[in-house]
Amino acid sequence: MKIYVPALLSLLILITAVERASALAAAQPKIRPNVLFIPIDDLKPMLACYGDDSIKTPNIDRLAERGMVFLNNHCQQAVCGPSRASLMTGLYPDTTRIYDLSTKMRDMNPDILTIPQYFRQMGYETTGLGKTYDSRCVDKMLDEPSWSIPYSKHGENMLIAKGYESPQYAFQDPETRRLNKAADDLYRQEKKKKEGRSEKETILSSPGSRPAFECCDVPDDAYYDGARTAGAMKLLEKLAAADKPFFLSVGYQKPHLPFVAPKKYWDLYDPAEIELADYMKQPEGAPSIGYQPGWELRGMYSDVPKDDMLPEEYQRNLIHGYMACVSYIDAQIGRLLNQLDELGIADSTIICLWGDHGWHLGDHNMWCKHSNFEQGTRSPLIMAAPGMKAKGMKTQAPTEFVDIFPTLCDLAGLEIPSHLPGKSLAVLMDGKAEKVREFALSQYPRTPSGKVYMGYALRDERYRYVAWYKVLDEKVYKAKRPGFGMETEPAFIELYDYKKDPLETRNISGSPEQAQRVAVYEKALQQKIAEIAPCKVNDQ
């Protein structure tokens, strides 16, 4: 068939127009994906998507189907403030110098760069509500440089259910509220005295004022996390209607102690079927320095039995409360996911859900976090992103929370800041690599008998190696200055084989057949410390 010249000209014009449009589109800045950031306090990977179906978490599992589950992910230090400061800056604790709950992140590092701060610089609207940073480690604005819209503490984004007052501390039971308020008033009076009692002493001397758990038949939004979700849903609606991509952090407090959740979530579980930890002893051959006796539980809550090992019924109540809280938070995650779908922005939003560290539920006769053991450092991380190829997949590759900063940059199409030591996990999410690092690094300081030790843990696909170094200059360490130095050789070491001993019942570091493996791990650890720490090994 012949093509007449006019038709041919029209075709050429059309082709030229398409080419010009394509070139123009390529020259235009790409629309960046939104980021929904979901920090969850004290959440351990006791989730179905992690292979543990003890707790009902259908919504977190739904998110896992959209994204990738990082099965072997670890925090950098198993306590809120240091872990969050590390994650939010993409730097290790030895660089941030945040090892406790009282040091301000920007006092140590005035020019430090955070994830939301960088996204803000790149044109994002950044804001949040709930717990993202630990409030004790940042300014009163919850790190003012991070947020283009001031971070919401309460106000319009805390929508308590009608007919209910805000919880007293965390409680809604009328009698508990009364007792807690009385103890709170008493502590205010004690603070005015020259040698007044501490908050801990006041609480422990006031029975019923701060129980470790509460089961009340109230709606979700009667507690803070439900009320926060209601506010977050309204905030999502506003952000979605604006002309900027957004970075929104919605931080949840539960399952942090006290374990308070509406009765319907407690009713999901039969107390008689709740199993206690399989192994409740310190590992054979392990140094006592790695152990912690549940300071947080025993020192902050009024009705905890004094027994060295808690009575079985009380242990079941604690575990029951933890499970109820996780299911309660799971329901809130479902509300957020539904809102993304209803607003039509689910396919243009990166979702990053993480728990700030693990949690001991009676294993090794330990409760809470504060350790270098598996249950202390292993932390949930689930990420979903538009266009990712490995949807619904899981990886056993070792990953760390310092990897989140570069990963979010990579997924959002932003240049990764060159100072970050973490690795982008986007290659795992696209199935282009099997792993990005050989091991995950965690650490925890200890001060037995007034002496200071820094413990480091390496975790690969099978083993955990822990080395405890004595700090040389304790005055420099306690003054929170770099260069405190550590002994060349570790004072104590631990090695656990999770293929043969998943419960950490025996420290095998002293076995002759493990000598070569220990030497390899020790060399790798010292190299890693030299890379990240202002207090390098041998720095005297």
Topology:
Elements: H1 5-27, E1 34-40, H2 58-66, E2 68-74, H3 80-89, H4 93-96, H5 105-108, H6 115-121, E3 125-130, H7 174-192, H8 199-204, E4 213-216, H9 224-241, E5 246-251, E6 259-262, H10 263-266, H11 295-300, H12 312-343, E7 349-355, E8 360-361, E9 367-368, H13 374-377, E10 381-384, E11 393-400, H14 404-412, H15 426-429, E12 440-446, E13 453-459, E14 463-470, H16 474-478, E15 492-497, H17 515-532
Parallel strand pairs: 1-5, 1-7, 2-11, 3-5, 4-6
Antiparallel strand pairs: 2-10, 7-10, 8-9, 12-13, 13-14, 14-15
Structure description:
- The protein is α/β, with parallel strands linked by helices and 540 residues long.
- The protein has two domains: 34-161 and 222-293 and 314-437, Alkaline Phosphatase, subunit A; 447-532, 2-Layer Sandwich (Arylsulfatase, C-terminal domain).
- It has 17 helices and 15 strands.
- Strand 13 (453-459) and strand 14 (463-470) form a beta hairpin.
- Helix 2 (58-66) packs across helix 12 and helix 9 (224-241) runs parallel beside helix 12.
- The relative contact order is 0.16.
Widest β-sheet, arrangement of strands: 3-5-1-7-10-2-11
| Mean pLDDT figure | 93
Look at the structure and give the CATH class of the largest domain: Alpha Beta
Number of strands: 15
User: Which bin fits the share of residues in helices?
Assistant: 25-40%
CATH architecture descriptor name of the largest domain: 3-Layer(aba) Sandwich
CATH topology of the largest domain: Alkaline Phosphatase, subunit A
Derived structural class = alpha/beta
Count the domains: 2
Report strand %: 15-25%
Overall form: globular
What is the H level of CATH, i.e. the homologous superfamily of the largest domain? Answer: Alkaline Phosphatase, subunit A
Low-confidence stretches: 1-29, 535-540
